[in-house]
Design brief:
The longest helix has 42 residues. Strands 1, 2, 4, 5, 6, 9, 10 and 14 form an 8-stranded mixed β-sheet that branches. A 7-stranded mixed β-sheet has the order 25-24-27-28-19-29-30. The chain is built from 15 helices and 30 strands.
């Protein structure tokens, strides 16, 4: 049992449905008495479970009512207690003739039954009787009543039989049949490839029902309702595959650099067509089963699995994957060729039925080889990128469960799920879960790649415009404060940075920092820090939280160096909140403030930055600077030092920077001053650099 045609996912006969008519009409009674099946018909239906007379072969004379069928075998279609369809798991499944003494029977076979109809209705009303056939059967049939053809499912012609996916069908009996003896003869035909799908095939897998036409119509509506319920999962599957196809195409259109998006769309598209073909077969007779089987079993099944293999190969971004891709393509072609030999129109005509003895093992080996390739791809992906690979492992295993459901059944692995009274197979459930997880992973990868791409673009742009990033063109005018800044790089581009950002509820956010090193590498890091700082300030004004966010951003980006940063928030009432990441403490009116230091940015992920609060009185000046001031060195090698630096911090930012530069600049010099003004004083700002100086006061 392998390479199950999707038509076998059809609705199986469920015994409770047979008796749902009791909710609508009085119960029917039926019993066997001798050779005639006693059927008393009122406003109900009779379930013709048998025993039926059965004979393999074909002879149109077997439809005649006078035929002596006493030497025929018997076949009871009553579903055994606890029986269920081995494919779908639905209950009430009656095994076919291949498991009832006719294992090699293909082609034609006949069922016959003599029914003694006792109609309790008024003969003057002349109610029309009808017969409904079971929904589960193999593969086409014609129904004769008293030698007269009353209906068929499938196209019986001189060239052969064209059969379709099974659907509910009911047929009216001749008008002159009201009661009395009735001979029902059913001519069945089964395709030679059908026994390859299931060991229990052949003929009827449930009993026909006889009754008044109105009652039979009610039963047909119940059967169609059962079909609709079983197709809810199929519709959800198709919907999920459509979404996955659209998602893959959209992501590939937005990011052509990752071919995994394209292969996700192609794999989902092929499998969507497979499910759509099955759905069309349930509700229409557009596609004969030969065409449906060729499309799904020969073309789409192996192709779908091969596309999933290509998807996972590109998902893991395996090196030298082209050789593996060629192997996948070769296995897909071989699998499709083998399946073409095992399906109509070749199998049973050009290819003898006995050839299945060696074709089946070959086709199974090829299909298993495709599965091994998928697992090998997953193994290589996990080795190459453990985190990403482990995330993809569950959907890979679900893909194997989905694609190899029938093979798992062969080795007696349970494939039927019963949840809250609903029975389904692991294939559709695994497929649905797999597509859900894959879609989430694809969106996760796309968002992450776009974020990295945007960050990379911003970093390049910031590096190009690093001077504009390092040197604000102006400072904000903040009511109640006088702000001044001096920036004098040691080289053309420095590693110091500062930002003065007004708050929405008044006040100001001040940041100053120093990146170890000089030149463009330091400037690139500065541009990253400044961009991060501005972004974080949109969401929080807490110095501690901003430093924590900048620290996370700087992890693994220090390149062996370090970055110090001091951030403080000054509120209109003079309240100041400060947090420090290894930077020089601020000075308040010439006195160094005691601020607890955290580690510099980018060293460890769990660094904490305590906050300290103090009050900035009216007229008081807060001075922030980088170590380029204290580390200024004279020609004689003398350091300016922290003592002299502290003594200068009551001066203006320009004076402090000029003094350090005159003493002997060796590193970038940055000085910021924040002075609280009294009532009625106008806010003042001053921005100055060695390149650009402007008195904006």
């Amino acid at each position: 049992m392998q390479f199950l045609p999707l038509r076998r996912l059809r609705v199986r006969w469920v015994m409770p449905v047979l008796f749902l008519s009791a909710l609508l009409m009085p119960a029917a009674t039926a019993r066997a008495d001798g050779r005639d099946f006693q059927a008393r018909i009122g406003n109900s239906v009779v379930v013709l479970t048998g025993p039926w007379k059965f004979h393999p072969g074909d002879d149109m004379r077997w439809a005649r009512p006078e035929l002596d069928d006493s030497l025929w075998g018997t076949m009871d279609v009553t579903p055994p207690e606890g029986s269920y369809d081995p494919i779908t798991g639905s209950s009430g499944f009656s095994p076919g003739w291949t498991s009832r003494g006719y294992p090699k029977l293909i082609g034609y076979a006949w069922y016959r039954m003599r029914v003694n109809v006792q109609n309790d209705t008024n003969p003057g009303d002349s109610p029309t009787l009808a017969l409904t056939m079971p929904l589960n059967f193999d593969d086409a049939y014609q129904v004769f009543v008293n030698g007269q053809l009353i209906g068929q499912f499938g196209d019986f012609n001189e060239k052969g039989v064209v059969f379709y996916n099974s659907q509910p069908r009911g047929f009216e009996l001749p008008k002159d049949i009201h009661s009395g003896p009735v001979v029902i003869a059913i001519r069945f035909w089964m395709d030679p490839s059908t026994p390859l799908t299931n060991p229990d095939v052949g003929g009827m897998h449930g009993p026909p029902m006889l009754g008044q036409a109105s009652s039979i119509d009610a039963m047909l509506r119940l059967e169609w309702d059962a079909v609709n319920r079983t197709q809810v999962g199929n519709l959800l599957t198709i919907t999920m595959m459509v979404l996955a196809t659209v998602l893959g195409l959209v992501l590939f259109w937005l990011d052509r650099s990752d071919p995994a998006y394209f292969w996700l769309a192609m794999a989902s598209l092929v499998n969507m067509f497979m499910r759509l073909i099955v759905l069309v077969g349930y509700y229409t007779m557009i596609l004969p089963m030969g065409t449906e089987s060729f499309l799904n079993d020969v073309l789409f099944q192996a192709l779908g699995l091969g596309l999933w293999a290509l998807f996972w190969g590109y998902w893991f971004r395996l090196s030298r994957f082209r050789r593996t891709a060629r192997l996948v393509i070769g296995l897909v072609c071989l699998s499709s060729a083998c399946m073409a030999l095992l399906r109509p129109p070749l199998f049973g005509t050009v290819i003898p039925v006995t050839a299945s003895a060696w074709l089946l093992p070959i086709s199974l080996a090829i299909k298993l080889a495709l599965g091994v390739v998928v697992l090998w791809i997953a193994y290589q992906g996990i080795r190459a990128s453990r985190g990403e690979g482990l995330l993809a492992l569950p959907p890979v295993l679900l893909l194997i469960c989905w694609q190899y459901q029938e093979e798992l059944t062969i080795i007696h692995v349970p494939t039927i799920l019963r949840v809250f009274g609903t029975t389904t197979s692991i294939g559709p459930a695994a497929m649905f879960l797999m597509l859900t997880i894959v879609s989430v992973l694809m969106m996760r990868r796309f968002i992450r790649s776009q974020r990295e791409r945007e960050q990379w673009r911003m970093e390049i742009e910031q590096a190009r415009q690093v001077q504009q990033v390092l040197i604000p063109e102006d400072l904000p005018s903040v009511q109640g404060f006088a702000l001044a800044s001096e920036y004098r790089p040691a080289q053309q581009v420095g590693g110091d940075f500062f930002q003065i950002l007004p708050l929405k509820n008044a006040g100001v956010l001040v940041a100053i920092g120093d990146v170890s090193g000089k030149g463009m590498p330091a400037a690139m890091t500065v541009s990253l820090l400044v961009g991060t700082l501005r972004t974080l300030s949109e969401f929080t004004t807490s110095p501690r939280e901003i430093l924590a966010g900048m620290n996370v951003r700087m992890l693994s980006r220090t390149g062996g160096g370090f970055t110090t940063c001091l951030i403080l928030r000054v509120e209109p009432n003079g309240r100041v909140v400060v947090a420090n990441a290894g930077h020089l403490a601020p000075y308040l009116d010439g006195q160094e403030l005691e601020v607890e230091n955290g580690l510099p940015l980018g060293l460890t992920v769990d660094t904490h930055y305590p906050e300290k609060e103090f009050r900035l009185a009216v007229g008081a000046q807060l001075t922030l600077l980088t170590d380029g001031v204290a580390e200024a060195r004279s020609a004689a090698g003398e350091l300016l030092g922290f003592t002299k630096t502290a003594a200068m911090t009551t001066k203006s930012a320009e004076a402090i920077a000029q003094a350090a530069q005159d003493f002997g600049q060796e590193d970038d010099i940055t000085v910021l001053t924040v002075k609280r003004l009294g009532m009625g004083e106008e806010p003042a700002i001053r921005v100055a650099t060695s390149v650009l100086a402007a008195d904006l006061g």
